[in-house]
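PROTEIN FOLDING TASK:
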Amino acid sequence: MPMTLAKAPGCLYNRAPMGKAKKAKTPSSTVAQNRKARFDYHLEEHFEAGLALEGWEVKSLREGKANLSEAYILLRDGEAYLFGARIEPLPTASTHITPDPLRNRKLLLHRRELARIFSGVQKDGYTCVPVSLYWKRGLAKLDIALAKGKQKFDKRATERERDWNRQKQRLLRRN
């Protein structure tokens, strides 16, 4: 049923409100990214893993207080763990616990995914790196990838390609 101008909210004297309608900002679902991983590795196969978190960690993630820059994945006893990820505790954290920002967190993966990751890491030159941390339907998820290390010339080629794409965009805007 179409709304008439007289019944529209914020309308006076049977006319539309002046000014532009302001859109509500939707917060990004991405909490943290590991940009260094994309620079140092060729990311080949991606997996989505859940995280076993404590309550204070969830609250900190909602505030965006996470850092994956020095994080890595350790595979041990048929399970995967996230090491080195820093989740800063909020100052309003509970008084009866002592939050550890660098706590090791267990990754929640299916057996088949764990088997594929384990077999991939056994290959020469492959490792498992965390790429990004994000929210999906209210749950914290970690995007991890099987990656092969880049050589120095690969990194230079990537930078060269990025610079060329930037120049191409500038030229297209001028014309």
About this structure: The longest helix spans residues 152-174. Residues 116 and 122 are 10 Å apart (CA to CA).
